[in-house]
Design goal:
Blueprint: E1 3-10, H1 15-35, E2 42-47, E3 51-57, E4 66-74, H2 79-89, E5 98-102, E6 105-114, H3 119-132, E7 158-166, E8 173-174, E9 178-179, E10 182-185, E11 187-189, E12 198-200, H4 204-213, H5 220-237, E13 241-242, H6 246-253, E14 260-265, H7 275-286, E15 289-292, E16 298-306, H8 315-340, H9 344-351, E17 355-357, E18 361-362, H10 363-381, H11 385-394, H12 402-406, H13 413-421, H14 426-434, H15 449-468, H16 482-495, H17 502-514, H18 519-522, H19 525-535, H20 540-551, H21 558-586, H22 592-599, H23 607-621, H24 624-647, H25 664-685, H26 689-697, H27 700-709, H28 717-734
Parallel strand pairs: 7-10
Antiparallel strand pairs: 1-3, 1-7, 2-3, 4-6, 5-6, 7-8, 9-10, 11-12, 13-15, 14-16, 15-16, 17-18
Helix pairs in contact: 1-3, 5-6, 7-8, 10-11, 10-15, 11-14, 11-15, 13-14, 14-15, 15-16, 15-17, 16-21, 17-19, 17-21, 19-20, 20-21, 21-22, 22-23, 23-26, 24-27, 24-28, 25-26, 25-27, 25-28
Length: 745
């Protein structure tokens, strides 16, 4: 079947836009073809620094014919109605329509046959709109026509359009159309410098080798592999290894059409600069790869990628890159030495002039909040309070350093270097870097107690703060990376096995934000936090209200309101954490409904215990006892739900009466329940959830026998009430482990 080849050739396509542009071209063209009734066998998009290309294989030569039966007005309808029908159906007169009768009378029907257009005709009609509406993040107009309202916009000036269609055994047809004065044709061009002449193209099979002969490697993945392979070979020949960088590799592959790999050198004296700085400097300014010695230390060589085969073997290109690298590394050394001359704590006043968020204050205010929260967390994570306070105080100081100002991606890392250089304790220096971690699912989690405390405080302050100003993630939008922060907290807590009362900490820290408008003048925030911390273990809402009442007077309700606000926000945040925990555990194979079932239990904010409960519940439900008991629970819950609609909620909460048992199956279930209820509570309290599940399993047999032989809704009202109370006891006992009503399946 015929293939379509399309190429849009322009002055330049920025590397950062290339991958998305190729995906957009494929999506837009193939989607339009399918909508036009042209199904295809396969499509592949390609991109270089100058061209977007698309090959669509297995297209039919034309659209299928269509047949439509269109119902019209009644016979004898007004002339206006008949005229509208004739026009819409494409008829020359009403005589071309057929008359059909039904129960309501006769009406007109038009049988419309529409012959399909040839595929080139369809493509020619579709492409101008696709090109004009192409979703570039940034685009431009050019030339004399740029002042016209409908002037063509493209990422950089569009220079030519290649569009051919045909089968392998035929001469392809040029698909003719015009966009912004640029007519489509069957020509492209080769490399900008080494083969700029026009190339005539017949189909994709000769398009790729023709470009290759003209010094253009069409496929970005192949360009990347050429760079990777040649860089490794070049480094190996020098006794070195290339420091792999996939993001840089993809970017460089998008900068060249004909990759030529070379190696340059810099003064070994620059190796006194931290290796991350050297790498960031060479990467950001020259898009070059650094190398290292077999032992792992950075080497004084770098790998660069040129877009031409130079007549001098690349000597001038290498020398030019070496000059720029030397200048940039000189700047980096100046930043490094200047920063070392200023102690981190001396930089702290400058944080007061940097706004973190207009509604959340400055970085200086944020550092104070993080330090206070980190000191509160320190004993819970096994960290020494003085070290935690020092680390939290210095954690953001490098934001105002020269080096981080030049390379923001080095924040934290440079702080660690500066802290170590000024003699801070190793745990403090490590925490300054690690408090940003983890920054993604593949990033490592801090494990040192001081780092853990500061990292948790940093993320919790971010979450509580943005919740306080109602800046929550919505749909796919999360401008402040709050999902990442929550997932970071979850990973730190679970992977370190921390027994942290998360709701407690969220409420306590939330009080800081809820009292911002008056706490400074009232001076009771510390007392409130101490009282809240003491009482919150019993009941968060009642505790906050009690504390607020203790602090307030009959004329001042602000503390009560602040405490209630802090509690509500903490509750909302725990729901958010539950959603993030589902994502975390789902990636590890856990079921989201089991997380819901555990989270539904009151006071569930210990993430480690939640995970253990979920694991135990999952294992239990994988057994026959678990599955059958779940079925019994659902049957009991459904009966109770139906009867509670009639008798009222809570109608069966009272304890059942053993004297009213009429059948041995009732007594058997009651006896087992009386034993299991206490055992489940005892095992759960001891955090032995596997044993709690085993205790539940002993309910399976008496529950099965009960439903086999007992009629719950007996004619005797007293008997019915007692049996419903027995089922309510079963429901209550099982819900002591998890809300089985939330379990799917």
């Amino acid at each position: 079947m015929p293939d379509l080849l399309l190429e849009l050739f322009s002055e330049e396509i920025p590397a950062r836009m290339q991958a998305q542009a190729a995906a957009d071209l494929k999506r837009l063209v193939t989607g339009a073809l399918v909508d036009a009734g042209l199904l295809y066998e396969g499509a592949e998009a390609f991109v270089t620094p100058r061209r977007l290309a698309l090959q669509v294989g297995g297209l039919p030569p034309r659209q299928p014919d269509t047949h439509e039966e269109r119902k019209g007005p009644r016979v004898g309808a007004p002339e206006a109605a008949l005229a509208g029908f004739i026009k819409s159906a494409g008829l020359s007169s009403i005589a071309e329509a057929k008359t059909v009768e039904d129960k309501k009378g006769a009406f007109y029907v038009a049988h419309i046959h529409k012959a399909g257009r040839s595929t080139p005709e369809v493509v020619a009609a579709l492409m101008p709109g696709i090109i004009r509406g192409f979703p570039w993040p940034k685009s431009m107009r050019w030339g004399r026509a740029s002042s016209e309202p409908d002037a063509l916009r493209w990422v950089r000036p569009l220079q030519s359009i290649l569009c051919v269609f045909g089968a392998e055994t035929e001469d392809p047809e040029v698909v003719r159309f015009d966009v912004g004065g640029i007519a489509s044709g069957d020509e492209t061009r080769g490399h900008r410098f080494m083969a700029p002449a026009a190339i005539r193209v017949r189909r994709f099979d000769d398009y790729v080798p023709s470009l290759e002969a003209a010094k253009v490697v069409l496929d970005a993945g192949r360009r990347a592999e050429i760079i990777r392979h040649d860089a490794r070979d070049l480094a190996f020949a020098a006794g070195l290894d290339v420091v792999e960088d996939e993001a840089l590799l993809a970017e460089v592959a998008g900068l060249v059409e004909w990759p030529v790999v070379m190696m340059g050198r810099f003064d070994p004296a620059f190796l006194a600069i931290p290796p991350e700085v050297i790498r960031a400097t060479i990467r950001a300014n020259q898009k070059c790869f650094v190398t290292r010695q077999p032992g792992g230390a950075l080497a004084d060589s770098f790998v660069l990628v040129s877009n031409i085969v130079a007549s001098d073997g690349g000597a001038a290109i290498v020398a030019g890159n070496e000059r720029v690298v030397r200048a940039r590394l000189s700047d980096a050394r100046f930043f490094w030495e200047s920063d070392l001359a200023v102690r981190l704590e001396d930089r702290l006043p400058r944080l007061d002039s940097i706004v973190f968020h207009e509604k959340l204050g400055t970085q200086g205010e944020r550092v104070a909040r993080i330090a206070a929260l980190a000191r509160d967390l320190a004993p819970q994570v096994g960290a020494e309070g003085t070290a935690v306070g020092r680390a939290a105080l210095l954690a953001k100081a490098d934001l105002v350093s020269e080096m981080v100002g030049e390379f923001p991606e080095l924040q934290g890392l440079m702080g660690r270097y500066y802290a170590a250089a000024q003699g801070e304790a190793p745990a403090v220096a490590a925490a300054v870097e690690d408090h940003y971690r983890p920054q993604g699912p593949s990033d490592r989690v801090p494990t040192e107690p001081v780092s853990v405390a500061v990292a948790l405080a940093d993320k919790l302050d971010t979450l509580v703060g943005f919740w306080a100003i109602d800046e929550k993630p919505t749909g796919s939008k999360d401008p402040f990376a709050l999902r990442r922060a929550a997932l970071g907290v979850i990973r730190i807590v679970i992977e370190n096995g921390l027994r942290l009362r998360l709701r407690h900490e969220l409420t306590l820290h939330g009080l800081v934000f809820a009292t911002r408008s008056f706490a400074a003048e009232d001076h009771r925030l510390t007392e409130a936090r101490e009282l809240l911390s003491r009482y919150i273990r019993d009941d968060a809402l009642n505790a906050t209200i009690a504390v607020a009442t203790h602090l307030s007077s009959s004329l001042d309700q602000r503390w009560i309101e602040a405490a209630e606000i802090a509690h509500r926000r903490a509750h909302d945040l725990m729901t958010f954490f539950a959603d993030r925990l589902k994502v975390y555990l789902r990636d590890k194979g856990a079921r989201h409904d089991l997380i819901d079932a555990v989270f539904a239990l009151p006071g569930q904010d210990d993430l480690v215990l939640i995970v253990r409960r979920v694991e135990a519940l999952g294992s239990f439900l994988d057994t026959d006892d678990g599955r059958n008991l779940l079925a019994g629970y659902r049957r009991a819950a459904n009966i109770l739900k139906a009867e509670e609609k009639r008798d009222g909620a809570g109608a069966f909460d009272a304890f059942h009466d053993a004297a009213l048992f009429a059948l041995p199956e009732e007594r058997d279930l009651a006896d087992v329940l009386s034993r299991v209820e206490g055992e489940v509570a005892e095992r759960a309290s001891a955090e032995d959830f596997e044993a709690a599940m085993r205790a539940l399993a002993s309910l399976r047999a008496p529950v099965d026998r009960f439903f086999d032989r007992v009629t719950v809704n007996a004619d005797d009202p007293a008997l019915r009430l007692n049996r419903l109370r027995l089922l309510a006891a079963l429901r209550r006992t099982m819900q002591g482990v998890a809300d089985f009503g939330r379990v799917a399946g």
